[in-house]
Amino acid sequence: MKGKTELLEIHGKIKSEIERRLREFEKTWRTDDEKVFSELAFCLLTPQSKAKVCWETVEKLEKSRTLFSGGEKEIAEFLRPIRFWRKKARYIIEARKRFTKGGKLVIREELTKFLNNPMEAREFLVKEVKGLGYKEASHFLRNIGWGRDLAILDRHILRSLLEFGVIDEIPKNLNKKTYLSIEQKMRKFSDELGIPISHLDFVLWYRKTGEVFK
Fold first, then answer.
1. 48, 76, 86, 91: which has the fewest C-beta neighbours closer than 10 Å?
2. pLDDT digits (tens, 9 = 90+) for 196-205
């Protein structure tokens, strides 16, 4: 298999760091609704934007409490370094309203019904949260410790899958049918490599960037 040795070597090198990161994600779910909502906000910001910049922005929004109580214009001011910042500010406000009850964030309460079925949780999120597609919903679920069997098909991962012959082309439109089809191919590739799919996106990301991030 093309590139198998390289990927196995990278996995061996960063496996312990990946496992530590995944344990951190699982702790997020057990922390509080604000931490879980922060991860949702991060994933709403990531399309066509740099992940590090998005996370730094979320941290500033958290610290100022603007993420949890600020209006759309206040949030938008923090988002200026991010593409489509006005639209993404609206998405955050709408998501906050969707997961607020009696003046309190209840995102964990809403998601608990899907506790043993992350794929159903993903369908729920894509339907209920404006601005969240399959990639973003998968990323969010992974970041709260739920998505160990879900693929995060961002442009970096898709390019790698093309390079390794897992897919024949990068689709112009990543609709539900296409996303699930490529996810299944990535799952098969993961099995053939002997690298868990929850580790594989980290391995492919590390191969391109030299770091393990979110």
1. 48
2. 999 999 999 8
